[in-house]
Amino acid sequence: MKHFRASEISKASSYQLDTNAEVQADTKRMEKVLLFDGECSLCFLAQGFVKASISDNATDFRAYQGVQISEGIVFDPEMAKRYVALFDASTLATFYGVDAVVQLLFSSDRHIARLCAALLSHPKPYKLASYAYDYISKHRRSISLLMSPFRSASFIGRRS
């Protein structure tokens, strides 16, 4: 699989600043970037994270809140199209699917992150993943819509 560096991705991209003062203040503290496309997205309101989009051809990257992507980022565009992808600027690592969700939750709720990690390390994680996502959706007010990274699943866990 071909991997793209940020320099290749940003050639055709334009970074736009959000005029909201609160968002700009939060941007200074952000170090994790959630990459998503139109079909496989994890929508949330979590401090310390920002959403960014990947176009269909995976060569155009636009950061929503003025976050500049490090030149060291390496990610697999095919994986990013199939699963939610989370880039951690502090380690230059990219996590996909369930791993991205665990990383997202671990930043703010260690109990839920540990539950997810325990359930997903089970020999049959596909059967247990739905329980974990259901638990997360019921106990995390910051998550508005959660999509299972498994292709056969659909959107689950709407906030009440």
UniProtKB/TrEMBL annotation:
Cross-referenced InterPro entries: DCC1-like (IPR007263)
Molecular function GO terms recorded: protein-disulfide reductase activity
Pfam families in UniProt: DCC1-like
Protein known as: Predicted thiol-disulfide oxidoreductase YuxK, DCC family
Organism: Ferrithrix thermotolerans DSM 19514
